[in-house]
């Protein structure tokens, strides 16, 4: 008995130790499984990012072996250059326009294809199709459509418009043409996320709202909209980040022109690095862009989370 | 076992990723095949023709890639910086481009070709653009000429002749309009096009009357703003105001503008002779073309042209097949290769072989070369790549009416004096 008494408390202790050991082994094994992916992330993303940040404090030209430490000179040059401010302003303008319009269109499309129309599956595929096209290919297609002698102006001319616009050559219009192309391409993306949110709205609540006599606007505002909050948060985050990083479409459509009127931070960054050989300056621009994206999306996330919480 | 097995796998993955990340050798492919990169259109066809002849003679195979976009220089620069560049590649002469000889040679990315012995044959006017630090880093292939490329068939149909004075240029624009045509189709959407007209006008207005202008600019005693560049920009503005260009020229691409000239909707296009092929591709059979100078004053005797050593090939200092690359470079400098390249690209070789017959399209330009009435392209002497980018964007703003001539020239002076 005494032996038993000695042993009895020992059994749960042993089990607890075994369980802890097993858990530790499980956690350790999990880390080992994570290791290859973490290694890829480290070498493909983190290490080059840190290297890039370090370059922002040098005068490296991108080709030579010499890199001189210049402190914050590159950042000072950026803040002294009016074109950098103009490019930042344009980038923010494009990001805001894209975020608002793309999400409004995305939501309307989602509401449309979430209805009981017969062709809703075909429509979903058709509306999502632009998302899977390579951005550069999309931009070149639109460059053809928006050319002065392109199909769009051909239609306008056929309708009797005397001097159809020069969408890409007019410095006042070009930035809107860039927004149009982005919105056309990514509205389907927003639509899919909203659609996922819409399909999570309980059918019985919708039916109850019918019985209570709610009209479509009231039903959307009071029942559907609150349920879509998580989808809206994701959509706004993705579109603002995409808008701030915009490069491919601008470069393929206008090269940042005419006369810098569509130059964004990313195109300015590309130009500084690969045309002017100012890799240090480019890295400083990239650091600023990264901080800008982080701060803006962070503020947006916190604001939306607070709103969702309410 | 589990730990050890997973750890080994993870270690292998880590090592593979590390090694892949550290890899810095030119990209693979058959080691006996020479990787050659060039421009598109005429230069590509010429390179292929010369490459085929080289392969026949030596048995060395060539893998030729082309990039007809405005991004060739930036792509090449990125590849060379990453150690994945081709063995032999097109190099821009002078210093005004990210893919220019001076930029690449300074960074130690070009092999010294002085031992190939062609240096002494380079015409004196091109020595500055063809060498760096008294050494040759590229084999000069063709001379480029800038002028107005006329669709002579459309000109005859419209009953017009090419202008020989600047006043006649403005009259020509008005007459073309009366005939229902556009005088000049310029595709401003592509950045290399806006600069063509100033390049065509400034030999007459700047570099001819003042041959030391580039040197004076370099020592700070001359500026764009206080030079004939002001007159060149004024004339450009006058041409715009006179309706010399097609409607919405700012949003027109080069390809579209070349098509307009080829089809005869426009009578001419100001550009380099290498554009001719793109224009001819859009033209009906039997259409004839000619390149002629663009006059800048009212005295035809003043007229000069922009002509420069325009195409050259360099060898990657880290070429995987250095011996074959050097053999190809040596072959490019031979009279046969020079003649074949120039003939295919409708250009003029730099080392003109005996008995070489230039393309008849160039007939009106040849006397200017013979009489030494030409100046190199201005950008070949500019100290950095920023000037040509600012030149293009300033012209877009100027011709849109967003800025004045003085503002445009001030932007260029600022870019000239910047360090980048």
From TrEMBL, chain A:
Membrane-spanning regions, if any?
28-50, 92-113, 125-145, 173-196, 228-247, 283-304
Q: How does it sit in the membrane?
A: Multi-pass membrane protein
| InterPro entries for the chain | ABC_transporter_permease (IPR051393), MetI-like (IPR000515), MetI-like_sf (IPR035906)
Superkingdom assignment: Bacteria
Major location (coarse):
membrane
Localization: Cell membrane
CC per GO annotation? plasma membrane
Give the signal sequence positions: none
Task: Kindly state which keywords UniProt assigns to this record, in alphabetical order.
Answer: Cell membrane, Membrane, Transmembrane, Transmembrane helix, Transport
Question: What does the similarity note say?
Answer: Belongs to the binding-protein-dependent transport system permease family.
Q: What protein am I looking at?
A: Raffinose/stachyose/melibiose transport system permease protein
Provenance organism: Herbiconiux ginsengi
What is the phylogenetic placement of the source species in the record? Bacteria, Bacillati, Actinomycetota, Actinomycetes, Micrococcales
Automatic annotation (TrEMBL), chain B:
Claim: Signal is one of the keywords in the record: yes
Could you list this entry's UniProt keywords, alphabetically sorted: Signal
Q: Does the keyword Signal apply?
A: yes
The signal peptide annotation in the UniProt record is 1-20
> Short name of one Pfam family for this protein?
SBP_bac_1
Q: Which InterPro entries match?
A: Bact_solute-bd_prot1, SBP
Protein name, per record: Raffinose/stachyose/melibiose transport system substrate-binding protein
Organism (species): Herbiconiux ginsengi
